[in-house]
Design brief:
Two copies of one chain form a homodimer.
Chain A lengths: L7 E6 L3 E5 L5 H7 L18 E6 L9 H6 L2 H5 L2 E3 L10 H5 L6 E4 L26 E7 L11 H12 L10 E2 L1 H13 L3 E7 L3 E7 L7 E7 L3 E8 L5 E8 L9 H10 L3 H24 L6 E8 L1 H7 L20 E4 L12 E4 L9 H10 L8 E5 L4 E6 L4 E6 L20 E7 L6 E5 L7 E2 L1 H13 L19 E4 L2 E7 L10 E4 H29 L7 E5 H6 L2 H6 L11 E5 L1 H11 L2 H12 L1 E2 L8 H8 L23
Parallel strand pairs in A: 1-5, 7-9, 10-13, 13-15, 16-25, 18-27, 19-21, 25-26
Antiparallel strand pairs in A: 1-2, 3-4, 3-5, 6-8, 8-9, 10-11, 11-12, 14-15, 16-17, 17-18, 19-20, 22-23, 23-24
Chain lengths: 655, 655
């Protein structure tokens, strides 16, 4: 992780990821530190030649090819700017020049074979260099032994030895001590001859004692609790690196697929909250076990966890009744960041372990949004930037260095494949990209892991609808175009039209995979929620501040936001019509925010300060809401003038 | 309780109690506020005439008899300075005069019929006026309701309402909130229309929320965990009064009667610590239930507990291994005062309840001794004062306003009736005072509750031995005097002599109640431990400070210390030979220390500061230890010059 606060971004394609480069790092390290798993046999030693990348832009800023590249790459490859990720880095003498430049001057292409198969589990995010200053530190101390002339009790001897050793704690007498830790001190102290390791929390509390020198074993875990997906990042707090990542579907899905249905479940069932709470906590404990097994450590080696999640996920995780979030005026129980004991929420890490839960903003806009703001640093951008966290619940942020505003939009879960007839999650066999030949309406598609097609995931649905528009199969209002209804791929099912994406003889379950009229309506509602939400938020800002700001840049965050074809997202009118170069897919920015708070405790203070700065807007009560939403239901919008760059629409009928 | 820091003491006889008078209080209030239960039918209204007392000294400082006294007392009674406790107080115009006087100018006699029967359960202590400033406060707040223009989360609205209402908390945003409390906030807030009561801990943490106005219900409980006895004092934190008291034998006694045998039990049994811990915690929970039932409140109405106990009782109560206290160099795990959550130690009070455990000093000298110092204010005395806490474990403190030193003495439990053939605890049927006629060796005695005699309690044993000395039945070396061995009350049992205190036809169990040679040896060891301990401590102080201080005053603390005949305690040489007027029986001073810490949180800071000031002396390693101890085995001492006032010893043979 980055200890040097330089701010050089590199764009990676085709994954549309923008990563922050840390001084001294090579590209292989940059990728793996950001959670992007890359194929390599030698682990970055420059001997296997597997980590080939191509520099598409800004080659002049990189170091010259090394001896190992000259051996492992052909002269033609070197001429075409192919490099080995582990051998290439930004040249020392270019760093100060690059720091002053915007937008990113370097673009690197990652060939498909470089990326490890399960990359589709989005666990990585934009890595803005965060310096290492964890809230939990370990200190090794050799404690004075007692004798009849020095009959000082155990804890007090520990504190005396600590104060003579360590400069960072001014008054060790004021150090608090976790009761669980105190109870085991007498035994621990005598186990390795009065040599112990102290786990220090927030520089003011001892939360654990261990026998001997255990300074090297200091881990934290950052959790992103999504409505649909849970991710845990196991991080070594001594070097700031992500040691392992594990994810799982949120088992609460069994009780309701979105936040509203889960609130309803809590309301309607006496033990509803407890069930949902146990479900998620158990799943997080499984993730802890998995990440620890991968990293070959014990769950008890984890001293702290950080957590992001939307307001409802936050409340249920904490066993706090979420029903008032679901009722007007939609207030959570608490918004401040919370410092808790892991045992109070049954998280199975170290016995004295701590949990930091990032603050909520208001209503449904939760800690995940704070995570997005922290990791994307939208609050430092000079241009007005729209950040969209595309998940089951949609949150939008509009901001720059002068202002921050946020709102929630009920995007629904169409974008994650729910409510769509052949929709499915981004798992093996899901169609994730689609092309339609406008001449004969034949369809080309790819599936995750190249398995036989089973259904369509979110990015595939957006592609399908965009391509159906381009081929004029549907009109701008989302209805099937009468002109094509006799085509063999368009069938009528119970009075409604459907378009066949994959014929049954090619699919895994021998049934047609289709996009129905209803599916298109679901997508329209979802994309309209985002677009009108952003517009209403912008109008609100301009009205209350008497400004005329415009959106100049877009950050697409979230698992789904990372995989969609951003051109098609723009084509269907989900996001404003701005140049592709200004649309960044920033990955799991919420999860990255949780990681950053684990790595640097100062970000928790920043999160608190952000709360005061953020303007929360309830867009559903904006007077223009109904009209804006209705107009945004059209592809790309009722008013084509808002999308001047989408020339294809000239030939697509409105109805 | 006393809110006015005046310092007027009144001596009460025959209970030898010195109480501090608070301005405006009448004598009835002074007694009941100090935990001394007094008979009254009208509850202090001056109508029943039952609370008669006699002013033996200093009548001129009191108010004149009131109309109700003139009605309810005879003219003779009024002439003899009989008063009604509820009608008599120190006259306003005498207060400033009295404050400058020392020693106490007022002595009041309490007739036996005034004292409520179960007075023998010593639960009261010296009440030095402590002003009311509890660590737990309750605040009633009407919280603003949310709406779509004010969509502020619950906790943040509570804090806003609190800050506008209450001046004592400067920055409510910095208030911590107990997680258990936070979880119930949404429901509580809406239960009585956004009117709630906040329980505030240490002015920096909210530990509970309740619906409606519950400001009146604010209780704390102070525990004294003795090796043998447990006492709990339920105190209303709004008025500082003791509402009820309950006591019980420490059930750990089943596993070992003193601290050493209990440490051995922990060492020898894998689940030993857990067993002893559960035993005491369960017993304290019973005491909680009992005190609450008496006061008609619920255990959950108690927000805080304070705890004193010797080092071993302290560790076992906290489930901390005590074995290193029992091994040289005798170090506890911790000495600082501890602030804990009640649920972490399974104390069944309010869910978010807190527990403050007073600090230990060193070795066996524990929180009980800090309690004694705090409540007796020995650190404010101008004369060098010896405080002895007479319990199963003996601690001594030597101090005045300039110095404080403390030591532990292995007094054993003879003084509590253990190891004594017919010894028993101070329960109904125990012989608690004895007179021997030197002419015919007949014995007069009293028993607790006037029941048929069953055995002898500690004060009876001291009386018996002192009287046996005065009647020359035994010599100064503790052996039976050959001169009397043919007397019918002296019998030989298995080669050892015994003196019959009560003949079998008068006892409850139809067996002689006797004092044996071995019993006398047990008492000698106990009294020698105290006397030599005090002497060694004094010598240590004088040597290390190059002073020649002498003990001028004695405080006898502890259940047992309160009931003994102080003249006889001096006669056997348990305490130094100073004038009776300077020997104060200060009651359960340790328990009073716990109460005072509950009433005024500043005393906790004082306890911390005391730790730095107190000189802990390991008297067993003082070079003179063996000789001092051996010399103190004699009655009253090998060296009679140390007891110049005990003229009777001239005629008592040494061997």
């Amino acid at each position: 992780m980055n200890n040097n606060n330089i701010k050089i971004t590199i764009n990676f394609e085709p994954i549309s990821r923008r990563l922050y480069y840390a001084k001294g790092e090579n590209i292989y390290q940059l990728l793996t530190n950001s959670g992007i798993r890359v194929r390599s046999l030698c682990g970055g030693l420059g001997t296997c030649g597997k980590c080939k990348i191509m520099v598409q832009k800004g080659n002049k800023y990189l170091n010259s090819p090394t001896d190992s590249e000259k051996t492992l790459l052909t002269p033609t490859e070197i001429n075409e700017n192919w490099r080995l990720a582990c051998q290439s880095r930004i040249a020392e003498n270019q760093i100060s020049l690059l720091e002053t430049q915007q937008p990113p001057q370097i673009r690197i292409f990652l060939p498909q074979e470089l990326l490890v198969e399960d990359f589709k589990i989005l666990t990585s995010g934009l890595n803005k260099g965060v310096s290492l200053n964890p809230n939990v530190k370990k200190l090794f101390v050799e404690v004075n032994k007692p004798n009849l002339d020095y009959p000082v009790p155990d804890l007090e001897r520990v504190l005396i030895s600590l104060s003579s050793k360590n400069g960072i704690i001014k008054n060790t007498n004021k150090l608090l001590v976790e009761f669980e830790a105190l109870k085991k001190l007498p035994k621990i102290l005598r186990e390795e001859n009065h040599r112990i390791t102290i786990t220090l929390y927030n520089n003011n509390k001892i939360i654990d004692f261990e026998a001997g020198n255990k300074v090297n074993i200091n881990y934290g875990i950052a959790f992103d609790i999504g409505t649909t997906t849970l991710v845990g990042y196991l991080i070594n707090l001594n070097d700031g690196k992500v040691y392992s990542v594990a994810s799982a579907l949120n088992p609460q899905t069994a009780y309701g697929e979105d936040v509203i249905t889960r609130i309803t479940y809590v309301k309607d069932n006496e033990d509803g909250l407890l069930k949902l709470n146990s479900a998620v906590v158990d799943a997080l404990n499984d993730i802890i076990k998995k990440t620890c097994a991968k990293a070959k450590i014990k769950p008890s080696d984890i001293c702290e966890a950080t957590v992001v999640g939307n307001s409802v996920m936050h409340h249920i995780f904490l066993n706090i009744d979420p029903i008032y979030i679901g009722l007007s005026p939609y207030v959570p129980a608490v918004k401040r960041g919370l410092n808790l004991n892991s045992k109070d929420i049954n998280l199975k890490i170290s016995r004295g372990g701590k949990v930091y839960v990032l603050p909520l903003i208001a209503g449904f806009v939760g800690a995940d949004t704070i995570g997005v703001i922290l990791s994307s640093e939208i609050d430092k951008e000079s241009e007005l930037t729209l950040a969209i966290d595309v998940g089951t619940n949609g949150e939008i942020v509009l901001g720059n260095k002068d202002l921050l505003a946020t709102a929630s939009c009920a995007a629904g879960s169409a974008l994650e494949g729910a409510h769509v007839k052949d929709g499915m999650r981004a798992a093996a066999g899901a169609i994730d990209s689609i092309k339609i030949n406008p001449d004969d309406l034949t369809v080309e598609y790819t599936t995750i892991n190249n398995k036989k097609s089973l259904g369509i995931c979110g990015s595939g649905i957006i592609d399908a609808v965009a391509e159906m528009l381009k081929a004029k199969i549907i009109t701008r209002s989302g209805s099937f175009n009468k002109q094509f209804i006799d085509h063999e791929r368009i069938v009528k099912n119970d009075k409604n039209f459907e378009f066949i994406i994959v014929k049954k003889d090619e699919t895994a379950n021998k049934r047609d995979i289709i996009i129905s009229q209803k599916d298109i309506r679901e997508l329209q509602m979802a994309k309209a929620a985002f677009f009108s939400g952003a517009r209403l938020l912008l109008n609100h800002i301009n009205r209350t501040r008497s400004t005329k700001l415009e959106i100049k840049q877009i950050f697409l965050a979230g698992a789904f936001g990372n995989y969609i074809n951003k051109n098609n997202a723009k084509f269907i009118g989900m996001i404003p019509d701005i140049s592709d170069e200004k649309i960044y897919q920033i990955g799991n920015a919420a999860g990255m925010g949780a990681q950053n708070c684990l790595l640097n405790t100062n970000l928790r203070k920043k999160a608190s300060k952000l709360l005061k700065k953020i303007d929360y807007v309830e867009i559903a009560i904006e007077k223009d809401f109904q009209r804006q939403y209705a107009e945004a239901m059209y592809f790309p919008h009722h008013n084509l003038e808002l999308f001047p760059n989408l020339k294809e629409y000239k030939n697509i009928p409105k109805r």
